[in-house]
Amino acid sequence: MLRRDIFVTTADAVVIGGGVIGTSIAYRLAEENRKVILIEKEEIGSKTSGSCDKAIFLQSKKPGFPSELAKASRAVYENLEDELDFSFEFKRGGGMIVVQSEKYLPFMEDFVEKQKQAGIDIQLLDKKEAIDQQPILSKNIVGSTYSNEDAEVNPLLLSQAFADASRRKGVEIRTHTEAVDVSIENGKVVGVKTAKEYISTEIVVNAAGPFAPQIGDMADVNTPIQPRRGVILISEKVTPVVKGNILCSQYLAAKHLTEEAPAFGIGLSLGQTDDGNLLIGASREFKSLVLSQITGWMTIFDNEVPHLAL
What we know:
This is FAD-binding oxidoreductase. GO terms for molecular function: oxidoreductase activity. By secondary structure, the chain is of the alpha/beta class. The protein folds into 2 domains: 7-51 and 156-218, FAD/NAD(P)-binding domain (3-Layer(bba) Sandwich); 91-152 and 228-308, D-Amino Acid Oxidase, Chain A, domain 2, CATH 3.30.9. The protein has 9 helices and 17 strands. The strands form 4 sheets. A 7-stranded mixed sheet has the order 6-7-5-15-16-17-14, with helices on both faces. Helix 1 (20-31) packs parallel to helix 6 (155-168). The protein starts with 6 loop residues before the first strand and ends in a 6-residue tail after the last helix. Mean pLDDT is 88; it is low at 288-292.
């Protein structure tokens, strides 16, 4: 039974979550002439999409489905700014994965060959070639990969671009609106309840990111997502010094080799915003950050890009 002060409306689909995924899905559903309502408990892009780095890193994805999905996603960006009529700082800057010691060289040689077989445009550079490409790198590195297919984007602006384009196509966006329940009848979704509104619908898209399990529980759907926290340090604005995006082989090994992954998956990631802020990271952890992790992380940064050491 609904309270009398609850407003009732209808929609073909309700999207829960206002990040890049939620806003893009709302936009694509609206292209199919569906009536769409998107609800976001804070502001557009204010959670995960507004807290990540700017890398579109194709070469780091595992061959198979992750790589194929990444390639399809990367292709969308080529004309997306024109389609959405919004600049979200998309650049084809390329990317590098630095090999910081001989220990990781066999792994990286094998990884590059597998990526080539998967159709990724990637090459393995020696030390001189890597430093020529990225002069800020340390002379102590062994080498680096390079792919010109990697790119970068401002994820907060991208979320806003999809949101604005969605509104132009008729999507109703409710910010500061939290889903409090998903109604089920005879095993099917029939509506979404917020504090002030009941939306009758047959389609609910759970795009709540790390909060997706909570939404799934409302519909008795198990959503096996375990958030993995990453922390990035943001510098003051400096002159342009970083070309594209940089990862390191330890970071990659932490993703792909279980025996190489410390508890917090530490390893260098580095990029620079259009405004000049350095994005220095990053941890990959399932637990809260502690000081010892930051210390180890910054040691890697000092070793691999000493010209930028803080």
